[in-house]
Amino acid sequence: MIRKNHKTLHLFIGLVATLAMLLSACTAAAPAGSGETASDGAADTAASGGEEAASSGAGIGDRDPKTLVILYWQAASLPGPYLSGGTKDQDAGAITLEPLANVAPDGTFVPKLATEIPTVENGGISEDLTTITWKLKEGVKWSDGSDFTADDVVFTWEYCTDPDTGCTQLSRFEGVTNVEAVDDYTVKVTFDKPTPFMYTAFVTVGSPIISRAQFGDCVGAAAQTCNEQNTLPLGTGPYKIVDFKVNDVATYERNENYHGEPAYFDKVVFKGGGDAVGAARAVLETGEADYAWNLQVEPDVLAEMESGGNGAIITHFGGNVERILVNQTNPDPDLGDLRSEYDNGENPHPFLTFKPIPQAMSMAIDRNLIAEQLYGFAGQATCNVIPAPDYYASTANDSCLTQDLEGAKALLDENDVVDSDGDGIREYNGVPLKVRYQTSTNSVRQKTQALIKQWWSEIGIDTELLNHDAGVYFGGDPNSNDTYQKFFTDVEMYTTGPSIDPQQHLSEWICDQMPSKENLWGGNNIFRGCNAEYDELYQQLTSTPIGPEREDIVKQLNDINVQNYYQIPLVHRGSVSATINGLEGVEMNGGWDTEMWNIAEWSRSE
Amino acid sequence: MAVQTSTAVEPGALSLAPAERKQRTLWGDVWQRFRRHKLAMVGTFTFILLIALVVIGPMFYTTDPDFADTTYAILEEGKPSPEHLLGTDDIGRDTLARNLYGGRISLAVGIVAMLVAITIGTLVGLLSGFFPSLDSPLMRFTDMMLALPQIPLLLVVSMLFRDTMRKALGVEAGTFALIVIVIGILAWMPTARVVRGAVLSVKEKEFVEAAISTGTRRRKILARHIFPNVLSPIIVSATLGVAAAILTESALSFLGLGFPPDVPTWGRLVVDGQAYLDLNPILSVIPGVLISLTVLSINFMGDGLRDALDPRTRK
Question: Which residue of chain B comes nearest to A457, CA vs CA?
Fold first, then answer.
């Protein structure tokens, strides 16, 4: 009897230990965030178990130094952007396909197949802002030796705009009414109305030129069936594609017909598969790959790997900003159908429309702490909703970078927003400053919430935190009350941002864009702020060509938004990749164009 | 002398005798047999210890579980120190304090939700097993509840009642009530089926027939004769229910339907810590071990109780 019990006791202890390990190791897989535009960056990334790091300084091991290995943990399904919209596919295509121009990391335009960037000054763009004329490089050849001409550019437009092709980049050609070859080396693109920003068609990784000779029979419904053409497209770039295994690996060799300096590497291998942590490890620890893309890994984990000394983390900051939106309307559930409705300005928020209050809330936040502790490589503190490129970024709000709790308290005191009943919470016109703060479920966001709640409580504002599953929160279902569009709370937090030209993004904040029950919460003026000055300035923007004047208007629009505290910017979020030691010429460019944009210049130091 | 000694002993022996012959009650018996079950005693002891830890612990370890000691998290990288016995997470919240507070909530949710589920399940099971006229409707209702997809149902229920509950009971109490009720009404069905089965078999036993033949009222038969004899499946369901409820709560919190994200519960702590398994495994291992300990100790208690309640194991 006693012996039996001892046995069971051992069994008990063993069970406890096993269960403990099991539970702690594999609880709750993170649900995938869907319907979210780049908003789940530094999200939950499952750290894989306790594999020991390979000895530091693994270098590239026994690999051939003239072979470049690029690791994308999401494998490419087709090289090129037209039939498959993923970044991985665009980037696999970008090693061989070229557009007329690329965007450099600093936001400037760099000609590729064009000789120069057309502007109003050099006559490339018409005075009325309706046509743009590109001059093409002469003597450029496709990788099979055939000639590249203006006709291929026209064909690319015909190919993508054929409704049966199912082109995923159709939006690039929005407003384009005609593309014509003026001569063999001149292309004229006509727009339906004055368009200040015309570098959409044939610019960046999203719309490279393809060959008419190769794809001529693949237009329309035939596009999907041209298997060989789709997997092995001819390119004008530094490398030509020689083998493509769907969802696995693409192989490239040096393009002998390249129009620039011959490329350094004999061979490029574009490998897919695995996860972000594994990809980081392959470059930073084991040296199996030279370049790893999109490393959404906990900052501490990444820093630890980088300290091994086998490679470096590189980042680029595009337009994405994690921000807090301040509801300008009243979200009180007792209002029923009027909840968070603008109602022609008849339903203002009881205290958040009084500027000193959101201003104090903004002052109380330590943005640098959030960026460094929670986002690491992938974040930097920001005070702007249009944070980049530099020529569009305002410097008028930079004081927010330093946390000022005392200043925030003083500001509230001065404006008579004080705690009159001694419960630690201030009141404004008798309404206690209690806010509900929602965001999506994501460990980084929940920690941000916890920190901000603490700072706000120090200045006398009580916060209730809510989080919703990303699928619901970003899902846009008009029947759910938990979507970011309905905004049934006082403040909410998520990431969004402009592309290289911010007009489209800025258009979202005019009065007409207000979401309401009537338009099924369709607008993008989520914070429901209506500002006549803003609307007027925005109209001016739509007719101002690229140049200093446009830059100035963008900054002013940014300032109106930020200084009225419609939005409280927190962290400028970037993309993170890793390169191995010795890989030279890489210029990280995640925000505006492909990371492969200058692969022709990559080389390895010997 | 010898006679004297024996006479001196005699009264004591006599006074002991009635005690030995003291009437044996069901629960007295159960307790005796339960105490002999070593594993059950270990489980009970562990469970009491856990409860003591989370109830009394925070009175001695007074660090605020919600306070983010950011300077500490940066300078000391959250490593353990006299100030933070088990270290902190990456924004400086004390690991030990969060586990102690988290335990209060997790255990309370587990036990209360289990009580809700067991009460409904037992009631439905007893009624449908004992009254043939109720059997079919109640069991079809149970089948229907089992067939409902759980997550969408949870979404709907919490969406419909969240604001009402919050208003009626306040943020914390409202969320707590909603969570235990939601978990409870989604977990009673297996209990109901098991209890019904047990009732059907006990109902045919001779002692029940005897009770019927002596004219005992049906309500009394149910309460006096049948209920005590189906206790063992109920208790087993109950012990399993606590564990399931603790885990369901963590899943709910993860979906944003549970407690606000800054309220620590064991389930949430495990989830939050999983990204740090390499760097700071303690963050999820500790709540993981605590959940396992709770679940196992309750299961062993249940095992012991079942054995103790089963007359066939009597020696």
Answer: B67
